[in-house]
Amino acid sequence: MSFTIEERGRPNSQEYRVFFKNSEGIYISPFHDIPIYANEAENIFHAVVEVPRWTNAKMEIATKDPLNPLKQDMKKGNLRYVANVFPHKGYIWNYGAIPQTWEDPNHKDSDTGCCGDNDPIDICDIGNKVCSRGEIIKVKVLGTLALIDEGETDWKVIVINTEDPEAGEFNNIDDVRRLKPGYLEATFDWFKQYKVPDGKPENQFAFNGEFKDRDFAIKTVKSTHEFWKALISKETNAGELNCMNTSVSDSPFCCSAGEAEDVVKSACAFGPEDPIPSSVDKWFYYEK
Prior knowledge:
- The chain is α+β, with helices and mostly antiparallel strands.
- It contains four helices and 16 strands.
- The chain is globular.
- One of its GO terms (biological process) is phosphate-containing compound metabolic process.
């Protein structure tokens, strides 16, 4: 199963979008049409890379837009870039989401005591390859961190790209601690501090910031898949979410290939990129 992307609008602008196509050239939703599993028997999942490692643009699946293309998040009318909190530069992993998952904002998690954040579940790929924006990778789940973001449960699932030369050595969260010393601590610090330069308080965590193991993480991912099933079949109120898809045949939101193509054609034509503000390179120093 292969996927390609089609960019529209000018990169680094508010109009920029990244649409997805399947191997037949039909436009699809990365939220709803890409299967959660690359290999269900082995618990290998697909993941959509939203933000390549070392970059700052806060790209995300546009859950409220038709076909859910990638777009850059906005904050106070401006494009959002995450701050560099010393010694980090941008995101310190390939950051993205697992398709066909949903953290239900109406469900209070029994472990965290908070409701979901209304998005697909997030992943941090610790593989060596710096992926490209919109790349679909196959990942092995290693563990998870339970971030509490402004009162919402926001799971951060630690994964490794199955194509990584070292993937066979990583099977659980303790392998990350052993083979990439300091990475989990840096991950915790990154999520704790990344909003502080914007004037916000440190983020909080469930389980006292402890990373949960592989089995716990896989169970969490699978539970968000069940919430997504209810969403896409209209058993749950979607609210502002756009569930337009071209492949979930029993979904009331399923549309034709032609309707999907019309969505993409209505977007701005691809053009030269706008400059990235020089302020994005600023380093913030944070006293712990």
